Amino acid sequence: MLNKRKILKLCKKLPYTIDGRLDEKVFNNTIQQIKLIISQFGVGESLDVLRSVWPIEKALSFFEMFFTEINTEDAKLSNNNKTIGTYYYRAYNGGVERVHSQLINIWTRLGYRVVLITLEDENELDYPYDNSVKRIVLSKEGGENLKTFQKIIDDEKIDIFIDHAWTNPLVLWKCVLCKMLNVTYLIHDHSHFAIQFQFNMKYACMCNKIYKLADGIVTLSELNAKYYQASGCNAFLVNHPIPTDLINSKHEINHDNKDHLLFVGRLGPEKKPEDLIAILSEVKKIVPEAVLDVYGKNELRSVHKMKRMAKKLGINQSVNFYGFKTYEELNNIYNKYSYLVSTSMIEGYGMTYLEAKAHGLPIVMYELPYLTLVKDKKGVLVAKQGDIKKMAANITELIKSDDLCEKLSIQSYESFQEFLKYDINAAWDFILKKTSGSNDDTLFVDTAIYYNPNESTETERMVIYSLLPMISYGYDNLVKVWIFNILNRLIRNIFFIKI
């Protein structure tokens, strides 16, 4: 605590903290003083305190300028990058977690030593990963802070840090930490860039600039890759790895269970779970025996809303919640159904779609035209976002027609077979070497994977740099109006006067 108080006092006296401008004199003086603080107290602990003093937008402006002044690429020219530190909150219950375990196995096959860092402790539901992997739990090491991350990086001699917590504002500071420690820093975006705007618009308008500071951002759709490329990021487009259990899955479809609507996944707000109830209600008008079966962790708020809505519509006896299932259990579950229903408003990749296609299940879903897994339009029936009646009509059509169900089932399985041809090992071998400054003469630029920011068009760049500041400006004004209205109401309530 004594160190923190000393660092806090010094950080509050930084020229940039006091002045707020970034002219050359303020910038250079601030850099010199930060270097002195770091030399005395260490990088991680100093940055932990500094982030409590500088708001994220203030810090971003400074480090954007800071990292244009230095070049760490020459220091990275080495073939000795052999230890990967990879971070996410937990290792169970979710698509990111399952993919993370698969990626770990790929990296170990490529010859890297892997250190898995999680916030939560080990769990019996954890997805399996290679036995050679060392697991470090942050809650046992001091929590999710930069001092702890630095200790892990130093102790484990980590060369490449891959961050899967891409929406966390701590990303900026982890990036700065890694750059100051000369560690390659990669961000893995498992969703869609637009998801940020739903939860934190102010931060979303800064994300492209934050990600630009990283050595690379790995993403899952061409749309994402082009957005990040136009933002000046080193963007890499990959498919998710296909789990072994899916490769060996059976192509079966159960025509005897067609009146059961299957949903698999978390019940987060972006999945629009209440739409499932509305859709079921419409289907039951034509198929009275229709039932909705929900598999996934029971997020209490969503389940409560769904149950309340089902009761209001008089269909609560037709909705079943089966909770979280392991992937081994899901393999058997998929074989009992005829199709998958999805009401997601947004997806990054959609592992449940991959699972459904592996089992030859048609997918009834809202339109997500950018999504890699459904761009071929094979095995899917789509409706516009929020079109309950069209979703219900598509499901009813599948229930009524065995021929249509079989046709889409074949298409779905054929689509999955195409994804099996993707060489995920080669893709990650390229990404890791490219971003860590490998001087391997055999390394070629894979244009199918690498979206070089220098190759984005002027028009694409101008769209991004014109649009985001205006969104941010509009958000600021919206917040000001919102705060003003709240203050008005408070003053009226306190003083009983009209304003």
How would you concisely characterize the structure shown here?
With 499 residues, the protein is of the alpha/beta class. It is built from 22 helices and 14 strands.
List the defining traits of the structure above.
eight-stranded mixed β-sheet, elongated, Rossmann fold, 3 domains, alpha/beta, 499 residues
Question: How would you characterize this protein structure?
Answer:
This protein has 499 residues and is α/β, with parallel strands linked by helices. It has 3 domains: 53 residues; 196 residues, Rossmann fold (3-Layer(aba) Sandwich), CATH 3.40.50; 175 residues, Glycogen Phosphorylase B (Rossmann fold), CATH 3.40.50. The chain is built from 22 helices and 14 strands. It has an 8-stranded mixed β-sheet, sandwiched between helices. It has a 3-stranded parallel β-sheet with strand order 8-9-10, with helices on one face. A 3-stranded parallel β-sheet has the order 11-12-13, sandwiched between helices. Helix 13 links the parallel strand 6 and strand 7. Helix 1 crosses helix 4, helix 3 packs across helix 4 and helix 15 packs parallel to helix 16. The C terminus is likely disordered.
